[in-house]
Amino acid sequence: MPPKWTVKWAVAGGYSIIGCKMPIAHSMMSANNFTFNGLNLPGNTSNPNGSRVTPVAIGQLPGLNTLGISMVRIDYAPWGINPPHTHPKSTEILTVIESSLQVGFVNSNPDNGLITKTLHKGDMFVFPVGLVHFQRNVETVNVVPIAALSG
């Protein structure tokens, strides 16, 4: 029987994060396949959006293969934005680690209303699967949230 391939992807800000890995053979497994170091490191926000996404998906952490989960760290410079985007096959749950962050999504009922809130350190927010959503730093200091994505 051929090995199972797993593909996880998200479209964000005009680029795709694609991971595709063959299953890890038992004889080649080690703790390194299940460990990622680096979410403590700030991302470079010197770009037009003033934000940087640091993904932890199959490409960075092979042990995630077939599990249907991933995480990201998002760094925001003052007034930085993660522009409107969607994850067609993933729900996202975001936790603010430092400072405050405005978040929102467009709901899918007939009026396409905007659901928005300013989150503070320790607050969480869920972006339902497939809905257009965004995050924006409304502070004059850097903001750091961590998000997990399903499926």
Automatic annotation (TrEMBL):
Every Cupin type-1 domain range: 39-150
Main location: secreted
Any one GO molecular-function label of the UniProt entry: manganese ion binding
Example of a GO cellular component annotation carried by this entry: apoplast
Record: residues binding oxalate: N82, H87, E92
Residues reported to bind Mn(2+): H85, H87, E92, H133
Alphabetized UniProt keyword annotations: Apoplast, Disulfide bond, Manganese, Metal-binding, Secreted
Location of the protein in the cell: Secreted, Extracellular space, Apoplast
One Pfam family per UniProt: Cupin_1
Name of the featured protein: Germin-like protein
The species this protein was found in: Penstemon smallii
